[in-house]
Amino acid sequence: MPTVRLNDAEIYYEVRGSGFPLVLSHTGRTSLDNFDQNIPAFAERYQVIAYDRRGCGRFTAPPGADSAETWVHDLHGLLQHLGVRRAYVGGVSYGAMLSVEFLFAHPEMVEALISSCGCPFGWGWDRDSAIPFPDRSKQLPSVSAPVPWIYGQHDMGFPPRMGEEAQRLTAGSELVIVPGAGHSPQRDAPEVFNKTILDFLAKVDARRGAASLSS
Q: From CA 167, how far away is CA 188, in angstroms rounded?
C-alpha cells in the first residue's frame, strides 16, 4: 500500500491512470473509496491522485490534529512527494472546502478547481464536532482558475442556492445542479457526475493546449 510519512502523519494514497494530474479529496469522514464509481472513468484520461484525509480511512496521525490548515498542509506535502507542480484539484463536501482553501494557499498549483457540495461562505464554526472553514466570499471574485460549482438537486445542508451565489461571485465559473442527487452526487448519480467533470476538464485541456502552442 503506498504511503508517505509527512511530519506527524502517514498518508495513504493511490495513483491511477496517466496524463495531467487530477486530485480528489473525499467527503466527510469516509475515504478515497468514496470515489470508487468515479476514479476508473477519470483515470482513462488523467493521472488520478486520491488519498485518505487526516483522521479518515488508512491515514495515521495523532488524534485532535485536524484543521483546515493542516489538511491543506497534508495535501501540499503529498503533491510535493509525488513531484506534482500543478494539477486539477477538487473534491466533495469537506473535500470541496479543502480544495478551495488549497487554491487560496497555493494558487500556482491549481490549474482548475472542482468544488462539489461544499460551502465557500464559512462553515462549521457553530458545530462541536465539525472542522471549521473560513468565509471566502470576499476572495471569490479574485479567483482566476476555472471552477465548476456542483450541487445535488436535493442537498438540504448545502443547497443549490449556495452554488448560485458562488457562481455569481466567481467570474467565469460554472454552476451544475445534478438532478435527483443529494449531498453525494458522486455516488447518487455517478455517470452524471463523471460526465460533468470530464466535459468541464476537456474544455480546460483545450485551453491549456492552445496556450502551450502560442507560448
A: 23
Q: The domain that contains 169 carries what CATH number? A: 3.40.50.1820
Contact partners, residue 162, CB within 8 Å, separation at least 6: 119, 121, 151
Question: Residue 176: which domain range?
Answer: 3-214
Q: How far apart are the C-alpha atoms of 99 and 153, rounded to whole Å?
A: 22
HSE toward the beta carbon, residue 115, CA cutoff 13 A: 30
Pick left, alpha or beta for residue 137 (phi over 0 → left; psi -120 to 50 → alpha; otherwise beta). Answer: alpha
pLDDT (average), residues 75-104: 97
Overall domain count for the chain: 1
Q: What is the DSSP string of 6-65?
A: ETTEEEEEEEES-SSEEEEE-STT--GGGGTTTHHHHHTTSEEEEEPPTTSTT-B--TT-
Q: Which residues pair with 50 in a beta bridge?
A: 14, 24
Specify the pairing of strand 148-152 against strand 110-116: parallel
Q: Which of 24-28, 54-58, 159-163, 195-199 has the lowest mean pLDDT?
A: 54-58
The proportion of the chain whose per-residue pLDDT surpasses 70, expressed as a percent, equals: 97
Mean pLDDT of the chain, nearest integer: 94
Q: What is the pLDDT of residue 63?
A: 77
Helix axes of 94-105 and 68-82: crossing angle, nearest 10 degrees: 70
**pTM higher than 0.85:** yes
